[in-house]
Design goal:
It is built from twelve helices and 15 strands. It is of the alpha+beta class. Helix 1 packs across helix 2, helix 7 crosses helix 8 and helix 11 crosses helix 12. Helices cover about 35% and strands about 30% of the residues. Strand 2 and strand 3 form a beta hairpin.
């Protein structure tokens, strides 16, 4: 049997291999779309992702017969940052060929590194945070691939479970069909007499994203999600970094702020599904892909979009008023999607036990499209 070697990611060459490995392993798999390498660099590079200021981390690659066959990352939060309910010791970015011994070697490397940091329990995948990409795909393998949503082959979860990892939480992604008949309609909630004067929906101000709007988003997001399982505060630096990317790829009409009695209480941001215009790039943007990307962003009529950020004041949740605000936001995003010729809108990741959010989503026609699973293992177990 060929020996499996697991090595730490050190240096630029291994880092770029770590970032592009999924598109090499899963090329041609139904449901998989290769993300752009440059976007993966911004996700996993310490200098480009402010989240790495909150953690110690180590990335690993697995090699067999001279070929790269898998990857994994391990990180532990520094003192002062404690995920709600979840372990501060976490793994992420697990991708591998269909070989349980490769998955075993990778998870053992992550576990040993975390145990050396004092960890007794591990959760994941978080890549690299619950506010980034999280969960392993366990349902919806051939569903429409969506931007910033991790894809995994069916065998990967089976191998992980065979190695002693059990379910901690499931995260649900919903799909909304968008009817072009919504074009020109105002949200029904805001048209009702009791809400006309109280609830206003305005467009996110792209001109003041980093000078005003990101502070608002940080406040609303962290207040709304602070009690949710796995929550880690989304820092202003992370929102500012996100804002830089949004300015490049988000149509202005895809950002909405809800104001109740003149005060901001919720926001939502959606992105067009960029996989529709980069599928032929095979992950490579340079040197010839950038002009194509710019041209396609200007001219392409997107079929799908995904809600990537949502935050609502905690005080409004589990209330009739909060439900009205959320329904108004969903209606507005569907209307704006119709105006942009979008045929379906995806909303995820919703915790399986977050009934306060699941109920209005399902009431408004949301259908389960994908399920991602967060796993857990006690590191003392064999």
């Amino acid at each position: 049997m060929a020996r499996i070697e697991v090595v730490p990611v050190e240096g630029l060459s291994r880092f770029t291999t770590f970032c592009k490995l999924p598109r090499l392993l899963y090329k041609g798999a139904p449901g998989f779309a290769p993300p752009l390498d440059v976007e993966r660099w911004t996700l996993f590079a310490h200098l480009l992702n402010p989240h790495y200021k909150l953690v110690e981390d180590q990335k690993f690659l697995a090699r067999r017969d001279g070929e790269w066959v898998g990857r994994i990352s391990a990180h532990v939060y520094k003192p002062g940052v404690t995920p709600v309910g979840a372990s501060p010791a976490q793994f992420g970015a697990l991708d591998a060929v269909d070989d349980i011994e490769v998955v075993r070697a990778l998870t053992q490397a992550a576990e040993e590194w975390l145990k050396a940091k004092g960890a007794t329990r591990i959760n994941g995948p978080f890549s690299p945070t619950i506010n980034g990409e999280c969960g392993m795909l366990v349902e919806g393998f051939t569903a429409t691939p969506m931007i910033f949503m991790p894809w995994h082959p069916p065998y990967l979860s089976r191998h992980l479970e065979a190695l002693g990892y059990g379910k901690a939480k499931d995260l649900i992604s919903y799909r909304f069909a968008i009817d072009s008949g919504l074009l020109g309609e105002k949200p029904r909630i805001t048209s009702r007499t009791e809400w006309q004067a109280r609830l206003k929906l305005r467009q996110l101000d792209m001109a003041t994203l980093k000078t005003g709007e990101t502070a608002l988003m940080e406040d609303l997001f962290n207040d709304g999600w602070r009690d949710n399982w796995g929550f880690v505060p989304f820092t202003k630096a992370e929102f500012d970094s996100t804002a830089d990317a949004l300015k490049l790829v988000m149509p202005p009409e895809f950002g909405v702020v809800a104001e109740l009695d003149g005060k901001p209480v919720s926001f939502v941001i959606a992105l067009p599904n960029l996989f529709e215009i980069v599928s032929d790039f095979d992950g490579r943007l340079f040197p010839f892909g950038l002009p194509k990307l710019i041209s396609r962003m200007r001219n392409h009529k997107f079929d799908a979009a995904r809600i990537v950020l949502l935050g609502t004041r905690k005080a409004l949740q589990n209330s009739a008023t909060g439900g009205a605000v959320l329904l108004g936001m969903i209606e507005e995003m569907r209307r704006r999607g119709a105006s942009a010729s979008v045929k379906h809108l995806e909303a995820g990741w919703v915790l399986e036990d977050n009934i306060a959010m699941r109920r209005p989503i399902e009431m408004f026609g949301g259908q389960v499209d994908k399920i991602h699973r967060i796993y857990e293992k006690h590191l003392g177990a064999s």
